[in-house]
Amino acid sequence: MAYIFECNYSKINKNSWSDLVKESNIGSIYQTPEMYKFWENQKECTPYIYTLNTTNNELVAVCLVVVQYNGSGLKKHFSRRAIIYGGPVLTNNCDKQVVFNELITKVVKNLKSKAIYCEFRLSNNYCDFKPVFEENNFKYLPYQNFKIKLKDEEEVFGAFTSEKRRQIRRSFREGVEISYKNSDENILGVYNIIHQIYNDKVKKPLPKYEFFKNLAQFSNGNVVALIYEGKVIGGGFLVFDNHTVYDWYRGGLDRDYKHQYPSTVAAWAVMKYGFENKLTTFDFMGAGIKGEDYGVRKFKAQFGGELVEHGRYMRELNPILYKIAMFGLSILQKL
C-alpha cells in the first residue's frame, strides 16, 4: 500500500491526529496536537510533526519531534538535538512494520539538516520495531523506567518500602502540605529547587523558567509544590493524558529539610494527583541505563513499581558535530 508523507502542520487534520493518539495502544500526551502547540510557544526549541496517510486520506501514523538547543550562535549549532518523547504513534489497524519503517526513514531524512542527533525516548513497548530501528542505523540504549498502576491508593501506598511509608507519614506530621495550585510562588519555588539540582548534580541543560511556568499552566500539565512553614521545599512538574500521569521534573531540598523528606513526598504527591484525576498509571519518566549504578533508580525502586525497559534509540545525524558536542558536554559535567 502506498502512503502519503506530510510534514506541514497546517495540512494535517487535528481531530484525526488527536483521535489516533487517544485510540492507539502506544499513544501518549507527548505526541498530541496540544503538545505541539505547547512546544511551539517555548523558547530554544522548534516542534515538527510528521504523518503518514493512506491514499484514502486515513491517518495511520504521527511523529512529533522537538528540536531543542541552547543559547545562540555556535552554542546553538552544537546543541541541536531532535527528541521524540513517548515515541511515534500508529493506528492499531495497519501493517505496522511497513508503516513504521516508512515513517522513520522519512523523518530521519527531514531532520538531517535540523539537528546533529536524533533520539527516541520511548514511553511504551516498541520491541516489535527493533529491527526497523536497526535497519535505519539507530543504536539501542537500554534505558529503564518504573511504572505504577494506580488501582487503589492504599494498595499502592502499601507497596512502598516501610522506610518510604514512614518518611511520608512523618513529613505530614511535621506539617508539610501538598499544593497543586499553579501560582507564581509555587512555580518559581519548585523551579528554583530543580535549577539548583541541575546546577549542582545533573550538569545538563535545563529549560528556562518560562518553560516551567508555561508547563504548569498547560491544559495537560500542573505544578506540585510541598509547603513547609510557608516555604516551598520541594515539588515537581507533571503532564498527563487520559490514562497516565508523567513525573517529568521533580526534586526537593533534602539536605536542608532532612525530617520532611521532600523528594519522597513529591513523588507521592504526583501519584496522588493521578488518583484524584482518575488516571490509571504513574510514569516515573526514567530509571537510568540497565547495568549502570544509578542512585535515582534505587530511590524509585522503593515505591514498588514495575521495572520496565522500553529503552531509547539514538542516531547521529552529523557524526563529526556530534563528537564535538559530546566532548563539550563532558567538560561541562566535570566543572
Automatic annotation (TrEMBL):
Extent of the signal sequence = none
SUPFAM superfamilies on file? Acyl-CoA N-acyltransferases (Nat)
- The source's superkingdom equals Bacteria
Q: Which keywords, in A-to-Z order, does the entry hold? A: Acyltransferase, Cell shape, Cell wall biogenesis/degradation, Peptidoglycan synthesis, Transferase
| Domain named BioF2-like acetyltransferase: residues | 165-287
Instruction: State the Gene Ontology BP annotations.
Output: cell wall organization; peptidoglycan biosynthetic process; regulation of cell shape
Q: Which Pfam families match?
A: Acetyltransf_6
Q: Name one GO molecular function term.
A: aminoacyltransferase activity
Q: Is Acyltransferase among the key words of this record?
A: yes
PANTHER family attached to this UniProt entry = LIPID II:GLYCINE GLYCYLTRANSFERASE (PTHR36174:SF1)
Similarity-based family: Belongs to the FemABX family.
Question: By what name is this protein known?
Answer: Peptidoglycan bridge formation glycyltransferase FemA/FemB family protein
The opening ranks of the lineage are: Bacteria, Pseudomonadati, Bacteroidota, Flavobacteriia, Flavobacteriales
